Amino acid sequence: MVVRVVRSLRSGTPVARSGLAALLPVAGTAVVLAVLPPIWFGRSTYTTGLAIITLVFASYAVGFNVIFGSTSQLFLCVGALAGIGGYATALFSDSASLPVFVGVLLGTLIAAIVGGVLSWIAVRRSLGVIFTGILTLVFSLAFQNLLLGQRQLTGGSTGHELKAAATTLADDRVGGYYLFAALVVIFLIVFRLIQTSHVGWAFRALRDDETAAELTGIDVSRYRVYAAVVGSAMIGLTGGLYAYSDGFINPTTFAFNQIDVLVLVMVVFGGLGSLLGPLLGAGVFEAVDQLLSSSGQIREFLYGLMIVALFLGFRRGLVPALGRLARRPVVPASPLQPRTDDGPAVPSAT
Amino acid sequence: MKGAAAGYLGQKVVEDIDLEVRTGEAVAIVGSNGAGKTTLFRAIVGLLPCMAGRVILDGVDLTRRRAHRVARAGVAYVPAERHLFPAMTVKTNLMLGAYPHRPNRETLELVFDLFPRLKERLGQQAGTMSGGEQQMLAVGRALMTQPKLLMLDEPTTGLAPKVAKAAFEAVERLKATGMTLLIAEQQVPLALSVADRAYVLENGRVRMEGTAEELEHNPEVRRAYLGVA
Amino acid sequence: MKAVLLDGIVLGLGFGLLGVGLTLVYGLGGVLNLAYGELAVLGAMVVSLVKDAGAPLALAAVAGVAAAMAAAVLLDLTVMRPVYRQSGEHRVLLGLLVTLGVAFLIEGLLNWRDPLGALTVDIGGGPIGIFGVPMPMSSIWASAITLGAGAILVVFLGATTFGRAIRSVMQDEVGARLVGISPSFTRTVIFALSGALAGLVAVTSAMSSPLTVTQGFDLTSFALIVTVVGGLGSVTGAFLAGLLLGIVDTLSAYYVGQYITSVVLLGAAGLTILIRPRGLLGR
Fold it and tell me: CATH number of B4-225: 3.40.1410.10, 3.40.50.300, 3.40.50.2300, 3.40.50.1000?
């Protein structure tokens, strides 16, 4: 079965620059992230805490972007992969009394392996987007239930307190902020390097037309698995570091509706496959979340509304859409799609 | 039936086509692969959007109607890929052809008359039949909609030469019943043998038109399509 | 053992009906409706509302089923239209994402209006012996309703012209259009049917244990598991898988424990995807 690439959901910005110039946007981002605390929220622990959450989600989002944005594998197990990183860190450092950084590394490694195996299965069985989504969703739910069920090991729903947690980081929010800011910047560099490298070209070819990519000699399945391994490692590492810096985790921390849904919204909002989209998406989302927090119970409803509007209205991401609008006000005529039953064909562009 | 121009994937694949089929007539659209025959047909029946032009059947404008409403208005289209319901029996496929109205016994008799094979295979699943039988069923199902105009797109696709010839013999018998036909075909000699008139399509435009006889003797057509020097 | 098995069959029938509602919509247009469980919860809350207003149980149940059905139709006529305008995997993916949003929307709405809402349907009456096992009246009612609904569904899809038209759209959308069948109309009908099934399952499941506002996602995942194991788009497969998983569920819950049971069910779905992605009876 040939899996068609999701054309309407990808962002179409080609990356032509190479070498150090390609890293300029990342450098700019790093500078902005570095100066934010002193000039804005350094003194407020509350705002710094929010900034940390934003950066954690941005890290997840970049990892997810590597997997879904680059190679169209719908991984609905970001929370589970992060949970693997988080719980591995907790268990190895507490129960097995290993140094924390070893725990984080092991967690990252396990997450990378699990993600790679899931992708390998999906590729081997030629599962298309929908079945990859179901498989990974099923994995997420099973993992969640395992966490709840294995009480002796995980603490079940009461959660797990990391004895080896960094007291310094939990207290010193600014330190935590810089840790995750560094993480995001490193992830962005990795993402950019992948984008501009030989592998990146393969990814782009693969996204445009899988069959064509295969015919030009690109080993599609191998690149899929590579992307899944790298992205899963990013997610696992973030989960591990989060557990370490926060000091407390429970199954809800990594639940599907706590992580995956938000990450999906952020990445689509920011523009699938774009470099800074996930970070912007995370920032805007957290800001909106703050605005909504005063609305209390109606918040979830508004989330739902936002998700529906976003996917229906801005299928290529809001940020790229606005960017296009700014660059040229007139959107060129886009190819007509074959007409379906529900009326005249509608151009796929936003 | 009046002219239609349709666009496909942003580029005009066919344009400025004036096409007329009179009641009881068999008209052929001939042309090589990629000339735009299928695009034209799909635009007429509403599977593709018409960007300009009109489609008129007996004074009724069908131009922007959805495909299922064009079908109900009396235009039956048999695509080259047939689009049968593979997991249903021959009988159910035929019955679904009569979906917009009650199944008509006379029409069913006509279908069995044309294709006795279908009567033998009533209980068989459509997906398990041979290519020729599937083509018969596709035409049979289209007839069950009691069309005013029957459009056949490449009825010989994927058929062995002998079976293809048999298919055109069936088309001939169909014409004898007074059915109005519009046939797209790459195999020009076969098409011209049945048609009253024909249009030659090249790169999405009508290159020539005339009665079948005129075209058969046209030196250009002979050179390009009939393999005669 | 016999009692556990019978319980499993009762549960399995409910699973089956739940799966059918999801599988029909998927089979017809490739949309995996992740808001499906929320439709059931919505129906349940309406039942509980009407019941509390003093209406008889039967009337409340009908109102609940009708509400779920109406919500499904509304969904189809609004947000699903742009989804169906896409084709192939675009449609599949967009459908998945949009219905996920709708799931949040409905759950948020219900949580906001009535965070502690729950539906309990009390049937009353003493247990009746079946194969020497005393079965509670609620199980018997639930099974009877489920079997009745299943039978009506099978007749509707298999023996009526409209049912055949629905199956024709599942098999070849273009072919259906060419004989004058409107895919969008059949889809609306199937969405309504799927909503009604969700509402019905909500009522029957509330007969044995309370159905709370927060259970929407659980119901969706159960339906998803049943659908995957039975084969996406297969009605008979969904019923078969429902029965099978119901029995597995009760056996495992009885002998092993709750959380592991969920893992076992999810594992069954995962294994199905690995070994036979088309499911038991999938096309």
Answer: 3.40.50.300
